[in-house]
Amino acid sequence: MRGGNYSKRWKERILRGREFFTSDDLLFSNSSNMSVISDSTLGRHLARRLVEIGVKDLFAVPGDFNLILLDHLIAEPELKLVGCCNELNAGYAADGYARRKGVGACAVTFTVGGLSVINAIAGAYSENLPVICIVGGPNSNDFGTNRILHHTIGIPDFTQELRCFEQVTCAQVVIKDLEDAHELIDSAISTAVAQSKPVYISVSCNLAGVPHPSFSRIPIPYALPHKLSNPKSLEAAVEHAAEFLNAAVKPVLVVGSKVRVAHAQKSMVDLADASGYPIAVMPAAKGQFPEHHERFIGTYWGAVSTPYALEIVESADVYLFAGSVFNDYSSVGYSLLIKKDKMINVQPTRVTIGSGASYGCVLMDDFLAALAKKLKKNTTAHENFQRIYIPRGSALHAKNNKSEPLRVNQLFDHIQNMLNKNNAVIAETGDSWFNCQNLKLPEGCLFEFQMQYGSIGWAVGATLGYTQASKDKRVLSFIGDGSFQVTCQDVSTMIRQGLNPIIFLINNGGYTIEVEIHDGPYNVIKNWNYTALIDAFHNNEGKCWTTKVKTEQDLQWATEKALKEKQDSLCFIEVIVHKDDTSRELLEWGSRVSAANSRPHNPQ
């Protein structure tokens, strides 16, 4: 069995045990038996390791194989269990949490839970996020016995789940013996943090609560060795790149999403300061470079770039791309006019210059920091940008009746005026990608979306996890109606946790992004009464406020109320717009991606 809410009274009973015992052990009781929870169990060791790497919230769905494990995980005072409505959202929540905290974790049960969460883990893998996926596994005595267990596909081989996770994690461990459990747990967690990828840890259900000498009360502190660049490779790469850039007339810098993995955001700012070059971000890297920086020119996204960023980047005679990922989405159907012989491609551990030399064992952060000291200042390309740039007009100031039906561009003009340093923006897959790219982020305002994997519904769970990790930010989440129908349940978890995001549900009656790639009757969905659904989730428990807006006047009233009177509540604002009201960027992007998808078969 799985599911349901793991009641906090169990944790209270565990912690109350401290009043009765002076030893290392804690009393735990349930209706049928008494057992002892020790500080030196496998579960407590795993919990301590999670806390040590920065995980204070564990997103979980209980099931019979992980119940004892959950007992011992939540016995750790610094680890809070957040019960989710389903495993997919638990995984998405861990993804969102990792984006803010640097690492996240989820816990599910064997196979039925594992194969439910695996889609979210695949997304975390594609986005380079270290997520610790913990699975409560079968009793250690059942391995190799030829027995058939429930929650399996009816054969005595228990490795189906493991083999699936091998494709979407960087390390997998199955703990069915205490002797090597300490080593396996530490190795898996270290690999996740070092490689910035998810890992899979399966714990036999009968071992989670068993003490072992290796799980001592005062364990060896968790630590990772520092990565170092090869000094000679670093020196050669910097000299070559500096020569390449200093000979250029109008060089530019472009930030990609892997600057996060490389922890190179500050070095990127220092490089922009030192060089004088204009700097753009690729779409997946929005939020990874401060947009108030004087050299920032916007998003480079081919034909759907923000105004004039395309012209400046593609007219450069040399461009340095740091942490870039070129896929069919980011390249707008492979239509970017970027020439390899003009590019310096800086990846987390490698630098490639033009069509020639490639330098390995060079950390991006080290390379950018050293390069900044070698470059001559060159502001030519930025001056060109300033000459041609015309600020985008505002729909707010257009002459229109505020009681007319609301347009999407009006919505995002209001959002632009709302943003401040205390906000974070989460954009769901769909037209929100494009509308949110056009937002100018104030200093301190954060931004997240799932560009590589693009799984609709991601934003609900990600909003839960990100908000849980960001008590200092008011999260604004933009979700289309089609995406929301996939994962809506865990808005109830946000209410239960006392979180206060503002969720803008953009209701245009279907899968708009799919319509622009290839239309058909399957892109039309059943309309829901979304505010009534959230009111049902609320059920007069916790703080939640909902409203529908159809006009600019409605929107202005709703946003003011959300920011002031309802600032401590989860606010759910359903924005009703016409089904054909889409951004210019989505129309262009959709046609190009459709063309790329429709290329005729070319046998190789």
UniProtKB/TrEMBL annotation:
Top-rank taxon: Eukaryota
Catalytic activity line of the entry: a 2-oxocarboxylate + H(+) = an aldehyde + CO2
CDD domains associated with the record: TPP_PDC_IPDC, TPP_PYR_PDC_IPDC_like
Annotated residues for binding of Mg(2+): D481, N508, G510
UniProt domain Thiamine pyrophosphate enzyme TPP-binding: residue ranges: 450-575
Thiamine pyrophosphate enzyme central domain: residues covered: 238-356
All copies of domain Thiamine pyrophosphate enzyme N-terminal TPP-binding, residue ranges: 41-145
InterPro entries: DHS-like_NAD/FAD-binding_dom, PDC/IPDC-like, THDP-binding, Thiamin_PyroP_enz_cen_dom, Thiamin_PyroP_enz_TPP-bd_dom, TPP_enzyme_TPP-bd, TPP_PDC_IPDC, TPP_PYR_PDC_IPDC-like
Subunit structure: Homotetramer.
Protein name from the UniProt record: pyruvate decarboxylase
